[in-house]
Specification:
There is one protein chain. The chain contains 22 helices and eleven strands. With about 700 residues, the chain is an alpha+beta fold. The chain has three domains: about 130 residues, Orthogonal Bundle (Butyryl-Coa Dehydrogenase, subunit A, domain 1); about 130 residues, Beta Barrel (Butyryl-CoA Dehydrogenase, subunit A, domain 2), CATH 2.40.110.10; about 400 residues, no CATH class. The strands form three sheets. Strands 1, 2, 3, 5, 6, 7 and 9 form a seven-stranded mixed beta sheet that branches. The protein has a two-stranded antiparallel sheet with strand order 4-8.
């Protein structure tokens, strides 16, 4: 590629047709309608609430409360429910919820939280509840049908508690459950006592899924219990949390002291020798819930980043219009004095980060949608067979070996590999289970870590590109509000430390490492035929990361301490960061390849597809370069930073230098790609005004 005049770039920012291809829902009319419904609410009611200053109060106002009706009427509420319980999405529910979160967050993150909080409250019930619990509470949350009269249930999720815990360690809770009454031949009645902190939706919640620890020898373990506002005892919603962000969601510090039937234990229980044994601990349930809901939080920040591109362009282009001597047709008038290299290059980084964050998030939602039925079927089969604990781990050894074999075969060119064996392995549900679980267990925390953590940092850059307007209430696109909201998104459902800790464990799964090897092989092959994509940089980055992970696992620092021990956060956490950078860059490249393959045949965007593919390829290339550079920096700091001297690194030093040299060479041409993206930004057409009020 060159920067000559014949090189086509996208003429307009991508619209629905482009996104439907890249994010894989072009053939799903139901999801498209859910997206349009969410967009209508976001750029209508939500935008008006923000513009009218409803974010500026801690109280839950009548205006904010109108969100619930809008969500019910638009289909947003129903998107998270099973079809038979009033839902509207058949199949890829995680993907649909991610897209809805994206649309709402384009305008306001707090509104997004309000729209999705029922899904979080229902999460323990949906993922691990009994069939009766799932059906009852999903139907209770379903929007009213014409002529139907009942109270629509609204939920809250009660995990976090006042200091010293506040959710920092989800395995530790101070809320307690005891036996209140237990008459012979009757269902036990439990007493649940819990103080909550930072609980969303408590202003309206009719039920709460609460994590509690046992304080009674007649209850074996911790559990989650469903509380209702009609239960006997204290259901005190508490005072509003004095937060400064996400003000279109309500957050309180409630107090519960309630008597509830034991049938409200999420997932059910058994009784043995006079002891109630919950089928699941609260930690087991929370792990299953957060594995999915954290992804939508990442997409919330991704939406904010992409929503910033158009306001920044408009501001920079119009900044000096009207000044003396600046007439139509002059560069200052047409492009804006500040739409020169610095502003353009910085905005290119914001844009590329947003695209990569969205790509990683939607890849993860699709991965969970593929994994969910596999997981459900496999675990149900093991449950029926009475296989659990160590027996389960033993039963998965062969499927793990088979999954590694499959990934090894997928590294090979299709024409030369044993395709019959590939087909047989791909058809094995146990192989799919261990393969997909290994991938999802890394993708989820990586999405949450990179999208919200790095994304929040990059949003500050977008704010700075708006000059003084960036810190005002009437900043076009509400960018200051979005930047501050992003700080919460980086924290809730587990801050960066939680995600890094999870990745530092899950990245060592041998099946995942086999997947990395397959990615390296496939990216290297792609780079040979399409060097403009940045595939070589991602491959080199993954190769260096793979080597470095192995090195720290088997070596010590200059003071004789093992580098790879679990408590060495200064070693393992940077490696988690490096991996997340690469996963985001690879996801964006995958989306671009999808657009290049499917775009030309699209009746609307087909004639303009070359420009879109070119610019998106450049965005992928510059993001790949940034990711590879971050990996190089991190790995160099770890390798040499823990050595006594460079001279004493020996053969390992030579191997590292070789890999680092390959990575550095892979960056050839990537800054030219960034220049092309910057030029595209200077010429791209935008509407006269944003499509939502200021």
């Amino acid at each position: 590629m060159t920067t000559n005049e014949s090189y086509q770039t996208m003429k307009m920012l991508p619209g629905d047709e482009i996104r439907q291809i890249m994010w894989r829902y072009a053939d799903r009319y139901d999801i498209q309608m859910a997206v349009m419904g969410a967009r209508s609410v976001a750029r209508g009611l939500v935008a008006r609430l923000v513009a009218n200053g409803e974010r500026n109060t801690h109280e839950w106002t009548e205006g904010k409360n109108a969100l619930y009706q809008a969500f019910d009427e638009s289909g947003i509420t129903a998107a998270g429910l099973d079809i038979e319980c009033g839902g509207i999405i058949e199949g890829p529910r995680n993907h649909a919820l991610g897209l809805i979160a994206f649309e709402l967050s384009w305008v306001d993150g707090g509104a997004t939280t309000t729209s999705l909080i029922n899904n979080l409250a229902l999460g323990p019930i949906v993922e691990k509840g009994t069939p009766e619990q799932r059906e009852h509470y999903m139907k209770a949350c379903a929007p009213l049908q014409p002529g139907e009269k009942r109270r629509v249930a609204r939920g809250a999720f009660a995990l976090t508690e006042p200091l010293p815990y506040v959710g920092v360690d989800t395995g530790v809770v101070s809320g307690r459950v005891t036996v209140a009454e237990w008459e012979e031949g009757k269902e036990p009645i439990l007493r649940v006592e819990k103080r909550g902190r930072f609980l969303t939706n408590m202003a309206v919640a009719t039920f709460v899924t609460a994590a509690v620890e046992t304080a009674d020898p007649r209850i074996k373990s911790s559990c989650m219990v469903i509380l209702e506002d009609t239960d006997e005892g204290v259901f005190d919603r508490g005072a509003p949390t004095l937060k400064l962000v996400h003000q279109l969601s309500n957050t309180h510090d409630p107090i519960f002291n309630l008597k509830v039937p034991a049938s409200r234990i999420v997932g059910g229980y058994t009784v043995k020798d006079g002891v109630i044994i919950p089928n699941l601990t609260h930690s087991e349930i929370i792990e299953a819930v957060f594995a999915r809901t954290r992804v939508t939080v990442g997409l919330m920040t991704a939406a904010k980043l992409l929503s910033a591109v158009e306001p920044v362009i408009r501001y920079q282009r119009g900044r000096f219009r009207g000044a003396a001597g600046i007439e139509p047709g002059t560069p200052r008038y047409d492009l804006g004095l500040q739409m020169k290299e610095d502003a353009l290059q910085r905005l290119a980084d914001v844009w590329a980060t947003g695209e990569a964050a969205a790509a990683l998030g939607f890849e993860t939602t699709r991965a969970f949608d593929a994994f969910t039925p596999v997981e459900s079927n496999v675990l149900e089969d093991f449950k029926k067979a009475g296989v659990s604990g160590r027996a389960l781990m033993k039963a998965l050894r062969k499927p793990q070996a088979d999954a590694i074999e499959l990934l090894g075969l997928l590294k090979q060119p299709e024409a030369s590999r044993d395709n019959a064996r590939v087909a047989a392995l791909q058809a094995d549900p146990l192989v799919q289970y261990v393969w997909q679980s290994a991938l999802c267990n890394v993708l989820c925390p990586a999405t949450k870590l990179w999208d919200t953590g790095w994304g929040a940092n990059v949003l500050r850059e977008a704010v700075s590109l708006m000059g003084g307007y960036g810190i005002t209430e009437d900043c076009p696109g509400f960018l200051f509000a979005k930047w501050t909201d992003a700080q919460l998104e980086a924290t809730y459902e587990g801050p960066e430390v939680v995600q890094r800790r999870q990745i530092s464990v899950t990245m060592n799964n041998e099946v995942f490492l086999a997947q990395v090897d397959t990615w390296i092989a496939n990216l290297t092959a792609l780079a040979a035929v399409k060097p403009e994509t940045g595939a070589a940089a991602i491959a080199a980055g993954l190769d260096l990361w793979r080597w470095m992970r192995a090195y720290v696992s088997s070596n010590k620092d200059a003071e004789g301490r093992a580098l790879g021990q679990s408590t060495r956060h200064g070693v393992l956490f940077p490696l988690a960061d490096a991996l997340s950078w690469l996963l985001a860059a690879r996801a964006l490249l995958d989306d671009v390849l999808e657009l290049a393959a499917k775009g030309p045949e699209h009746p609307v965007v087909g004639p303009e597809i070359e420009g879109y593919v070119n610019t998106f390829t450049d965005l992928a290339c510059m993001q790949a370069a940034r990711a590879a550079a971050e990996v190089g920096r991190i790995c160099s700091e770890l390798f040499y930073g823990y050595a006594a001297s460079a001279e004493q690194t020996g053969a390992d030093g030579a191997a590292f230098q070789s890999l680092r040299a390959t990575l550095d060479a892979s960056l050839a041409g990537t800054r030219l790609a960034k220049d092309r993206v910057a030029k595209a930004l200077s010429q791209i057409m935008i509407p006269e005004a944003l499509d939502y009020p200021q």
